[in-house]
Structure formats: C-alpha cells, structure tokens
Design a protein that fits this description.
By secondary structure, the chain is an all-beta fold. It contains no helices and nine strands. It has a single domain, classed as Jelly Rolls (Sandwich), CATH 2.60.120.10. The strands form two sheets. Strands 1-2-9-4-7 form a five-stranded antiparallel sheet, with no helix packed on it. A hairpin with a 3-residue loop joins strand 1 and strand 2.
C-alpha cells in the first residue's frame, strides 16, 4: 500500500483571504518549484512575469505552458501538481482561488 503524497500550498505566499476568495502570490526563480498541491477550487491566474511554467503531476508527464505578462487564465478545480520554473527567467503570478 503506497502512502499518499504530502500536499502543500498552491503558491508561495498568501496575500489575502476572506469568505469568497483566497489570493496568493506565486514567485519562482529559475530552477525553483512550488509545493506539491491539489487544486480543490476553481482558479484565476494573472501572469505578472515569466515566459513559461511547467506543471508536474506526481505520476505523469510534465506539461509546459507558455505565458507572458498580462495574460489571465481560468483553471477548473481538480488535479495534483507541482509548478516548476525550468526557464531562465523569474516566474510570478497572482493566484485567485474562488471559494464559491
């Protein structure tokens, strides 16, 4: 019987939380990665810096996403992953978790 993976935060710093949203900052320098985390809510991602970010599931192939400052993405809940910055530039985004 395998042990379930240890899960952490969806981003690097909690900025604000109330009854409707939780807002995080994700800041990853080149070569850094986030905690392994589960997307339990729907999300809005606002890209501030970076060119790409990888999503590494615990038992699957990494997915690479091209990004650019000013782009906004809506992501449905579900999935477990670790964000990995394999680029040569800093990656920074605002992550908005929608509680309702």
């Amino acid at each position: 019987m395998s042990t379930p993976p240890q899960l952490g935060n969806v981003a690097t710093r909690l900025v604000l939380e109330n009854e409707r949203v939780r807002i995080w900052e994700m800041l990853l320098e080149p070569g850094e990665s986030s905690d392994l985390h589960e997307h339990t809510m729907d999300y809005v991602l606002c890209i501030l810096e970076g060119t790409s970010i990888d999503a590494d599931p615990p038992n699957g192939k990494p997915l690479q996403f091209r990004v650019e400052p000013g782009k906004v993405f809506y992501v449905k809940r579900g999935g477990i992953e670790r964000a990995v910055n394999r680029s040569d530039t800093r990656f920074r985004e605002i992550v908005i978790e929608l509680k309702d």
